[in-house]
Protein 1
Amino acid sequence: MQIGTAKHSYQADEALLTTRPQRVWMALFAASLCIAPFVLDNYWLYLACLVAINVASATGLNILTGYTGLVSLGQAAFMAVGAYTVGWMQLNLGTPFLLNLVAGGIIAAAVGIVVGIPSLRVKGLYLAIATIAASFILHFIFVNWQSVTNGNSGLTLTPASFFGTPLTEYQQLYFVFVPITALMVLGAANLFRTRVGRAFIAIRDRDISAEVLGISLLRYKLMSFAISSFYAGVAGGMWAYFFRVVTPESFPFVYSIFFLAAIIVGGMGTILGGILGAVFMTLVPELLRFGIDWLTPVLPNAAAMLSPVRTIVFGLLIVGFLIFEPKGLAEIVQRSRRYFHLWPFKK
Amino acid sequence: MTAPGETGAAHLEVEGLSLSFGGLKALRGVSFSVEPGSITALIGPNGAGKTSMFNCISGFYKPQQGSVRFDGRDVTRMHPPERAALGFARTFQNIALFRGMTVLDNIKLGRHAHMKTGLLQALAYWGPAQREEMELRAEIERRIIDFLEIDHIRNMPVASLSYGLQKRVELARALAMRPRILLLDEPVAGMNREETEDMARFILDVKEEWGTTILMVEHDMGMVMDISDHVVVLNFGEVIARGLPHEVQADPHVTEAYLGSGDPAALMARLKGEAGPADGGSAAANRKTREDVA
Amino acid sequence: MSDLLFFFEVTLAGLGSGALLSLTALAFVLIYKATRVINLAVGELLMLGGYLFFAFAAGLGLPAWAAIPLAIAGGGLVGAVVERGLIRPMLGESPIAVFMVTIGLGSILVGLVELVWGTDPRALPAFMGNAPIFIGEAYVSRKIAIAFAVAAVVIAVFLVLFRYWRGGVALRATATDQAAAYSCGINVPGVFSLAWVIGCGTAAGAGVLLGSIGGISPSMGVFGLSALVVVIVGGLDSVAGALVGGLVIGLIEAWAGTYLGGEYKLVTTFGLLLVALMIRPYGLFGTTEIERL
Ligand SMILES: Nc1ncnc2c1ncn2[C@@H]1O[C@H](COP(=O)(O)OP(=O)(O)OP(=O)(O)O)[C@@H](O)[C@H]1O
Ligand SMILES: [Mg+2]
């Protein structure tokens, strides 16, 4: 049971982690992230890297959709922009990989601003559909802009290198991706302690009154698109260094749906939600694979069922969370926090 | 350009303002002036065009004709956020708090136009960004939260507050906007007697301590007669009377407008207002807004 | 062959696929008008209709005249179940959330179809014949001509029902003002169910037509995206918009596909969508929504 959360300064009151248990949990979590690469096997490290990439991109989408209320089904396309930028720079300029990642984010942000322009005219579902349109147009460009994207055969990258060491092992990539993602998540959390984040939330809750209260919709809607696609671009860049081949089919439309599903399942408009959702949605298909492997002795054609079952479960998770737990996993965490807060005095 | 941080009461002038929605003429050549440091009440029957007037002043509607001047400067073509930066602050008839934020964040949001933190500083929450936030927090605590007596709710989500408290938080947010003219759209609609008296006291205090010009739409005649320095009466988008509260009250056009509106509740409110100014006869407004809330 | 004749043939083919787009768009509009839900699973219901027909005609060996109504009824049944089970619990939630539910539903339907029938494309049993039809000198594929005729008849029937049938009137009333319709004694939940049943049945029927022209596969639901463009361009709540929009998009896709190349089809459609949204955010015929402070 916890008592006495009175703060002595505004600074303490406005910190990211305000209670002792929160800080303890965070320290434990950070410690386990540091130990993980030494205890996990290659397969789990592969998954951890994938999770890091997806968390970065989902957090970006959460800023746009969860916090600013602008629904986008184009996150995968923005990732693709980042991935192609990184690939092109590596093949044509040979610039260092951190620079490439940042450039990938910036180019994706620029594209995001253009794609966000309709948000000044249309809202809600109409905007979602405009982003669908934009992502198909981008796909067309990836296929047809031969000189840059190499068409359907795509770009093949050499491993990223860090002070001369090529990063080929998942363990090495883990040490790059996880800190980058952690920084991006921290940035997102910081955003909502300032006027920028407040402006986003105000636009989500009621854009027309936000405007009268001094928030330029033009500026902040486009800014939200820019940040969100910057995150996607960096994530896409990491993706490119992870799989080392980028084709137009690397970032299909369902991948965009995946990110929207991730923030729904995790909890829209909370930083924790973006993280939980991305982790959960990345790991569930793997768990299904274990389930199917386990069934194979009993059901001979179980392996063929894996892909359809994944598709079905993906749909069921979206529908199920929306109907039964619309605030997502983050809300479940909050509930259990409140429960332990009062423990052992149950309500 | 007004120097940033310029304070003090502003002079607002509206001249020949006309606004129509398709065939409906909401405002027809409305002119009036709000003297610096005064409380001016804009009254009139339902649908007279009062909220439309507010929306033109804050820039949400673009009038077809006429102009709005702020300390002599024509702001008619200015976008709402620029006006907010000049010192136009307002509350809304149908409460427009941001439901996903706490009381404190709603109030902080009001300061947006006067803050400087840019995107990169925000991501890093470093140096100036942090300092600006801390200063804002301290100032809000000192000047607004204490003043409006809302310290006990500062960390609550706004959606969980009572109607009267929500209206108070709206006023708090408007005060955080560094108002030079404060536009209050029905600040006591739907409130009980006690809440109304509190609100009237706050409004008078704002005028006195903050030296802000106030323009207020209100159906509660008791309150209008009590606290306003000047009254402008709108009917069907036209000014039909203006003057000191008691002059307007005695004006036969005004009586006719309320009677002619066929709204018995408005008549009751007016009669009550005549009987005893302190007795907040806001029956009409109460009925309307209570329904909205329910 | 003269260029003009070729252009004419391409145009006819475009009108044919345009009619199918109109029909599918009608499924969107019906559901949106009554329940304000954009059902992104319309494309997947269309696919399901194709597979149901396949199951009844090829699997059970039923004749086409029996298999088609069964496929449509199957689509309608799914619509009813979905409306009761998934959409009604979401009443009052944000439109985005409901939209996402239909995306999830689409995913479930694709998975189920893949589970039952596998992922390979299949051809539907022929029931329309193959002899080409000539209009003057211009050649039209028989299947496309039949699809056009069927779509035209179905749409005409819909228009008549909308105007004169009790259910149609109830639907229009509900679309205009739900609360008022309620207080006039209209069974609003009934209208919701009805709209979903008819909308999903229509989509399934369109799937049979589309499948008999180009075969069926679990990914044929993307046709729904083109139809979505149609309704956005035409206006989500406008039947006339769906009709005109369908034909226009059908024509443009046919022209773009022929003269620019097949890969330009979808990109032209979506480019058009963006332009349309910027110029008229609520569609050519749609109702503008006003927001007040
Ligand atoms: N965006 C709009 N589109 C169409 N008509 C509008 C719009 N805004 C206001 N009106 C109309 O303009 C007229 C004036 O409305 P307004 O809201 O200004 O009245 P009001 O004086 O504030 O009334 P109340 O006391 O009921 O708040 C009304 O007839 C209203 O229906
Ligand atoms: Mg009003």
Protein 2
Amino acid sequence: MRDTLSQHANTFAGIPDIGTRITLFVVITFMLIVTILLVYFKMRESDDKKGI
Amino acid sequence: MIIRPSWLHFRESSRVWIEDRLRLKPLIDLLAKKLVPRHKYSFWYLFGGLALFFFIVQIVTGILLLLYYSPTPNTANESVRVIVNQVSFGWLVRSLHSWSANLMIATVILHLFSTYFMKAYRKPRELMWVSGVFLLFLVLGFGFTGYLLPWDTTAYFATQIGTEIPRSIPVLGEFIVRLLRGGEFIDEESLKRLFALHVVILPLITLAVVLFHLILNQVHGTSIPIGIRSLREPIPFFPNYLFRDAIAWIAALILLFGLCLIFPVQIGPKADPFASAPVGIKPEWYFLTLYQTLRIVPAAILGVNSETIVNVCVGIAGAFLLMTPMIDRKARMEQYSSGFTWIGVVAIFYVIIAISLAYLT
Amino acid sequence: MTAQDKEISRRNFLSQALTGWISISVLPVLYGMVEYALPSKIRDRILESMHVAKEADLLVGSAKIVKFNKQAIALLKSEQGQVRALSAVCTHLGCIVQYQSDRKVFHCNCHGSEFDLEGRNISGPAPRPLQPFKVDIKEGDIIISRI
Ligand code: HEM
Ligand code: FES
């Protein structure tokens, strides 16, 4: 049981290669930066309302 | 006549429905009443919130890891390999948990130093400081207990050392060691105990302390450092400051993903309790100061053995940290206490020198 | 004492008695929980002597780490063919030491303590020598016992 589990555990090379990871990073960063911009404008709007 | 689209009606009527039942307005008014001052150091106010953010990331990713992790010496290392190699996005979840832990500890330390130098611990915020120091101990506890869980060689010896250190504490030492290990040696019992601490006991305590810390922050508002004339209008916490917090959190998320995707966390070989400790074995960065101190203190000074000395020093440093608001009499009277600032500077230098020595030698 | 004062001191007494009583009742619960969490000693059953290896498995001038109860023990065969057994657990904070045959020392990779072939702590933070064990060889079997 122990042997099959440890063999099983190593069958796939799990971590994707650096190219895939960087692509993923670019996509995630893009999504998050757009979010930051939207939140920023929302912040400006609510600041303006209070005259900050 | 303006015709409003029906979804706007729906939104408005749901808002009213919810407000009638939850009565959130007093809470929102309360949050809006708290003002966050603006001055040249206000940047540092973001760090408490960042620590909270990473703590939330830990809870979410920790729960995901729990679905596959199995805490026994025969299965722990394998189950982590299964997570990394087979579970979809398992490698990412594990990297997020590990990197966010490091970032959480780093932000807690930055938050501690910033409130220390701004002397935000002075009256009436003494208990915010004390609960904050407990949070530091708790996050270090998370780091220590989580480290053994992958059951790899480095983790095994790090835990052996870490649970051996308390032994030289007078009277309670033996007792603490047995309680932590669940026996004389690091084995299945120890793994189960540190696991229980890491996933149930510490999270529950931390949640309670964080809540206490946040409620006090609401009650007392944010402090202004001694001698700073707040030049600009303070900002209401809700919603204006919360937007700033949100921007910092999303920026932190970008940093976190960057670290995880560029440096995904690896897993070491399964621990063998009967093999020599590997060459160059070192603890995580946040324990390096303690590690280097253990290395430079000689075996005995005036007949007292080194661990006792290190234990006593750590005890004194911990007590000083906890008691700072009570010791610093000047700050209590709104006077700038430069002595305490110097102690902080010396502490930072000691940490930097110890960490560099640990890496260089 | 006015009637009002009496009323106050009675109420004070009651709340103090209640707090005190609750604190006292919590103590046995705490005691029970700590006792529950403390490992029972019986489970770490310790044998006084054990067969750990065959003499033929040992190479002259190198160390082999074997299991004695739950402890790690280094077996060392000298050039004269004599077998010695020393605890392989560093007396500093308990890492397993490594035998360096070129320098003839046991070196601990954790904080750099070193021990000579007799187990004496010669440098680093280790406070005590490595614990020695008794070695008996019967028909090529190495048997270790506690001294
Ligand atoms: C899990 C760990 C922690 C979390 C989630 C947390 C969270 C927060 C938050 C959200 C704030 C308000 C925003 C700010 O002023 O930064 C705050 C304030 C504060 N925290 Fe923490 N904190 C943690 C650990 C600590 C530690 C380790 C200390 C110091 C020993 C500390 C001391 C303080 C103090 C004194 C304040 C008041 C700051 C002021 O009013 O200017 N906290 N904390
Ligand atoms: S554990 Fe061996 S030197 Fe510290």
